Amino acid sequence: MDEGTGVVIASNRGPVSFVKGPDGFSTTRGAGGLAGALDPVARQLGHDAVWISATTSDDDRDALHAGLCDGLERELGYAVYMLDIDKETYKKYYDTVSNRMLWFANHCLWDELGIDGFGEEEIAAWDAAYEQVNRRFAAAVSEVASPGGLVLFQDYHLYTAPGHLRSIRPDQVIFHFTHSSFCSVEGLDRLPKPLPKRVIEGMLGADLLGFHVAQWVHGFLDCAERIGARVDRARGRVDHGDRTTWVREYPIQVDAGFLRQRSRQVHATEWANRFLDRTRKGPLLVRADRSEPSKNIVRGFEAFGMLLDRRPDIAKDARFVACVYPSRQSMPEYQRYTRSIKEAVASVVARHPGSIELFMEDDFDRTLGALRVYDVLLVNPIMDGMNLVAKEGPIVNERDGLLVLSTGAGSFEEMGDASIQIEDPLDVTATAAALERALDMEADERSKRAEALRRSAQAREPAWWIDTQLADLEAIAAGDEPLTPPC
Ligand code: F6P
């Protein structure tokens, strides 16, 4: 590893994953908004940036052993170091702790999934795997980061890494960004003791903590107060032990130019035409999500079914295209949820044949094609850090499409005003009513709302998200408060 890198990014998934095929290895872009937001920054910094990530699959591990990571710098313009995490440890760190404990805590999904406690296995996984991986990240970062450089930890997989790095490098400027929601005491306190305290103290190893929106900032501040830290809400400042941590919101943005251009290319256009063809007579509803309990996909289909049951005029021609791609399928909770989605669709289709087309493989162009031509886009998460689809849809849509959006989405902060709102995402009747309102809306009002949605979705440049964080970190390094005001 080089000495003294200016910016070190550390995340579970790196900018690319390896896939082994009959002709050798190829790379695919890391899933989710994280890679898309940080890759341009790393590219711009070039040799001054290093991205440290974990091997997330057998293919990653094999590629790393074959020395293929070294070639990534040529491909990406910056260095990528993958930490070789063995399969057993990775499963405990990723499935058991990150996704079963922390993800469910961050989204308050305990009651939704009927989880009422954890046992020895989970507590053992915390010490043996989660902490071990977080320490390894901290050690790897400390090897490459220059003393005056910035360290950007990403997401809930790495909640304790800031604290571990702080103990090795007391003067390092450390940032941590949570890409998911942060539910509050209600979510975190259901973890076995002492994990809630360990999570918060680990995060407080950072100088600056970032969340997508104010709601998650406040969730975190509640939890910090609960462990006895001194919280100054007016200044977005937490003092614990002899350290200060600033807490700010940085809503992630989307790249409107890229999305528009890609959505007009041949593959997406073919899909758009195909969907239009199918719905020539009636309205098209669309959703695009990972198969994920917090996205509340099942209730979305139940609401659509409920609406079709009582409105034969809509039922006659309305179509629902759902792009739902499976993720985290090594976990029983996700396997069950994927089954429930298929059952919910089957139940509606049995009553209204042909009304839903469900796609369950990830295909970006197909999703873009569907987003171009929807009349109504449904985004109804129980809780969601941001939900980029709520911004991407209005940017590429060409039919004055409306957005039906639940208050649980972080994007509600920026997109809520022009959307048709679902106050309680658990309320299927209210969701059906919101869909009905959207489908019945007059053309004038649709067009006004679509215009307002487009404006909000691209109100800020994509680089705003990271530039603001970097400016705040520089202010902190100079001994000042972050420039971004508290929320
Ligand atoms: O914070 C949420 C996140 O990690 C995002 O980066 C991404 O959208 C999603 O979850 C993907 O999850 P996973 O890496 O577990 O597939």
User: Strand order across the biggest sheet?
Assistant: 5-4-1-6-7-8-11-10-9
End-to-end distance: 39 Å
Instruction: Determine the strand fraction and express it as a percent band.
Output: 15-25%
> Structural class of the secondary structure composition?
alpha/beta
- Point out poorly predicted stretches: none
Please tell me the total number of domains.
2
Using only C-alpha atoms, the radius of gyration works out to 22 Å
Described by the principal axes of the CA atoms, the overall outline is globular
CATH superfamily placement of the largest domain: Glycogen Phosphorylase B
Number of strands: 17
Number of H- or I-type helical stretches:
21
* Largest sheet properties: 9 strands, mixed
CATH architecture of the largest domain: 3-Layer(aba) Sandwich
Structural account:
- The chain has 487 residues and is an alpha/beta fold.
- The protein folds into two domains: 5-252 and 463-477, Rossmann fold (3-Layer(aba) Sandwich); 256-457, Glycogen Phosphorylase B (Rossmann fold).
- It is built from 21 helices and 17 strands.
- The protein has helices at 33-45, 58-65, 72-76, 87-106, 110-113, 120-144, 161-168, 185-188, 195-203, 214-226, 256-263, 266-278, 297-310, 312-317, 332-351, 364-373, 389-396, 412-415, 428-440, 443-457, 464-477; strands spanning 5-10, 16-21, 24-29, 49-54, 79-83, 145-154, 173-178, 208-211, 230-232, 237-240, 243-249, 284-291, 319-326, 356-359, 376-379, 402-406, 420-422.
- The strands form three sheets. Strands 5-4-1-6-7-8-11-10-9 form a nine-stranded mixed sheet, with helices on both faces. Strands 14-13-12-15-16-17 form a six-stranded parallel sheet, sandwiched between helices.
- β13, α15 and β14 form a beta-alpha-beta unit.
- α13 (297-310) packs across α19 (428-440).
- The protein is globular.
- The model has no long low-confidence stretch (mean pLDDT 95).
- The structure holds 6-O-phosphono-beta-D-fructofuranose.
- Residues 13, 31-34, 155, 179-180, 327-328, 385 line the site of 6-O-phosphono-beta-D-fructofuranose.
- 6-O-phosphono-beta-D-fructofuranose is lined by residues 13, 31-34, 155, 179-180, 327-328, 385.
